[in-house]
Amino acid sequence: MRTLIAFLIGASLIILFMFFIKYYFGDPYRLLFYTVEIKNKNFDQVVEDLKAKLDKNGLKVIRMLPLSKALEARGVKDFMKYTIVLACDIPQKKELLTKVPSMSNLIPCSVAVYEKEGVVKLTTLKEIIFLAEEKDNLSNEDVQLVVDTYRTLRKTLDEVSK
pLDDT digit string (tens) for 80-125? Predict the structure, then answer.
């Protein structure tokens, strides 16, 4: 009986592990990006709500880049609504970017806001891969700063979706 129970537990753990691997590593998009979908708000409302919540949560907005409007001004027709929000204007950014210039991929953080098939999506990078690449150049405090900043960013994106 114990052998059967151990086998069932082991088989369950293997299945869960394989699902985890497929879920995270089977889809590179999910590995690299964090995306929130919003179905009950219009695009402009989401952009304004995101800006307000980023500022409220200490991730000051640096710049709004209305990509769809810029492309339209250059003659591109029928491009989806698309805005890039640069935020995470943290006080330590100068020291971090001076020490490791490639961290400009993460700080300031970038949130893509776009509308596709009637659904507004908020997408940002997952910081962990960039941090792993630069682990030898970053102190533990630097890593923790970026992790905490992105944790707050994901929390903010989740708030916007509610």
Answer: 889 999 999 888 888 888 888 888 888 889 999 999 888 999 999 9
Domains: count for the chain = 1
Q: Is-above-0.85 flag for pTM?
A: no
Query: What is the spatial distance between Cα 11 and Cα 80, in angstroms, rounded to a whole number?
Result: 46
The domain of 71 spans 29-161
Enumerate the H helices of 26-139 as residue ranges: 28-32, 43-56, 67-73, 93-99, 128-133
* CATH code of the domain covering residue 90: 3.30.310.70
Q: Dihedral angle at the C-alpha atoms of 98, 103, 109, 112, nearest 10 degrees?
A: 140
User: How far is the first Cα of the chain from the last one, in angstroms, to the nearest whole number?
Assistant: 48
pLDDT tens profile 38-88: 988 999 999 999 999 999 999 999 999 988 787 788 888 888 889 999 999
Q: Is residue 16 part of a domain?
A: no
